[in-house]
Amino acid sequence: MASAPKGLLFGTAGVPFSSEDDSSLAGIERIRVLGLDCQEIEFVNGVKMSLDTAAKVREKAARLGVRLSVHAPYHINFNSENPGIRLASRERLLKTARIGAACGAASAVFHAAFYGKDTPETAYATVKRELAAVQSIVRSERLGITLRVETMGKRAQFGSLDEVLALCRDVDGLQPCLDFSHLYAREGKVNSYREFERVLSKVARKLGPRSLRNVHIHIAGIHFGDKGEIKHLNLEETPFRYDEWLQALRDLGVEGLVICESPNLEGDAVMLKKLYNAQAAK
């Protein structure tokens, strides 16, 4: 497993649009040229990378000093009433973890479930059982990759901050992916320095202070309504107070990866890194 990053590293969800082509290898090269630090490899439509390509990705990322994570397919629902879908969800997450580990990725991010007809409490019990089984296999295979359950932006989706943190306490080895855009959309708040600080302080309180020294964060501008997230937007097109958010990260000594998911993919990632560094210079 890759060592925990020092400081806050910035990168993109997927291959930067300005890359020579849409391959992960080209994306890693472009990340370094842009002055960014990390890339999340998107397996959201299926894990189609071969072990041979994964080995090449691992070598190039290590040589260029680019940190990697991976994102599992969207078609995962550990709370489905259909046992076949739950089993397929296990296999999709495990395949992500296996190929991610072969790439040298430190983390595998995933969306856990939908509530469906169940209460949040019933869904939680099912998701916890399923993830404990997956995590047992990850440990037995010594994959050396951290599974990260993402906070979700739609209220029909399992993944409030409290649910994610509780899962990470109940399932050994599981860690959060803190999507601040999703938190904002789901709650209609979490958009001020004080609220960002409260979220981060809750993470440290529930998972221990060291949890803030190896985070995985998603960020984008976001449009939302009564049911939560609608779509991602560029940061400057929304009222999200990313300058206060960056300051809260700095003040609490947060370290780890910040993955930008806005439509202006590398543009917003570069902007955030420059703003973060400018804040440090004040």
**Can you tell me the residue ranges where pLDDT is under 50 for at least 5 consecutive residues?**
none
Could you name the CATH class?
Answer: Alpha Beta
For the largest beta sheet, what order do the strands appear in spatially? 1-2-3-4-6-8-9-12
Helical stretch tally? 9
Query: Based on DSSP secondary structure assignment, what is the total number of beta strands?
Result: 12
* Total discrete domains: 1
By secondary-structure content and strand pairing, the structural class works out as alpha/beta
What is the straight-line distance between the termini?
A: 35 Å
Topology pattern, helix = H, strand = E: EHEHEHEEHEEHEHHEEEHEH
Would you give an account of this structure?
Helix 3 crosses helix 4, helix 7 runs parallel beside helix 8 and helix 8 crosses helix 9. It is globular, with a radius of gyration of 18 Å. Strand 1, helix 1 and strand 2 form a beta-alpha-beta unit. It has one domain: Alpha-Beta Barrel (TIM Barrel). The model has no long low-confidence stretch (mean pLDDT 96). The strands form three sheets. It has an eight-stranded parallel β-barrel with strand order 1-2-3-4-6-8-9-12, surrounded by five helices. It is an alpha/beta fold and 282 residues long. The longest helix is centred in the N-terminal third of the chain and has 21 residues. Helices cover 45% and strands 20% of the residues.
Secondary structure elements and pairings:
Layout: E1 8-13, H1 24-33, E2 38-42, H2 51-64, E3 67-71, H3 83-103, E4 107-110, E5 113-114, H4 120-140, E6 146-150, E7 157-158, H5 161-170, E8 175-179, H6 180-187, H7 193-207, E9 215-219, E10 221-225, E11 228-233, H8 242-251, E12 256-260, H9 265-281
Parallel strand pairs: 1-2, 1-12, 2-3, 3-4, 4-6, 6-8, 8-9, 9-12
Antiparallel strand pairs: 5-7, 10-11
Helix pairs in contact: 1-2, 2-3, 3-4, 5-7, 7-8, 8-9
